[in-house]
Amino acid sequence: MFQMNTAWAKSNDACIEGAAWLALQENHDCDVVISALLTEKKYAWAEWGISKSLTHKNNVAWAIFSAEQVIDIFETQYPNDKRPREAIKAAKAWLKSPTEANRKAAYTAFSASASAAAASASASAAYTAAYTASAASASASASAASAASAASAAAYASVASAATEMREKCIKYGLKLLLEQEEAA
Fold this sequence. Notes:
By secondary structure, the protein is mostly helical. The chain has 2 domains: 6-53, no CATH class; 56-184, no CATH class. It has helices at residues 6-11, 16-23, 30-39, 43-53, 56-77, 83-96, 100-119, 124-141, 144-160, 164-184. The model is unreliable at 143-156 (pLDDT under 50).
């Protein structure tokens, strides 16, 4: 089982508080650590840990999942603006076939969805949904490091306008991907 221990935290530039919390844990198995973070409602740390541990493709899958959880929020407020949905679609296309053409398409969709997010900035929930979709698309068009950051942002953003339950759902999906990744290794 993958260990989220102090050496791992240091190599991933964990914050001082997070590294100190991790040092106090008796069991460093990734599933135990993430579960403890969920129990303690340390969602940002859980999202960070998952994003640092997933492969690029799994980070994209996680970002897509998170975006899909909130896309309806944006589309309810802006029913004729399909840019965020197109960003999700482009990220899915890259995930299915990570070609250079699909990477470029994902980047283009990311730019359009980011514009939708900016246009809806006055409506916080709609902005969050559009931002989440653009993060999913950005992660498909970016390097692995950028993908990890975008996926974490997408998971966080997916709940800025939704209940804690939605955030936990996204974290649990990220953990599921991480455990499947570990089994395949």
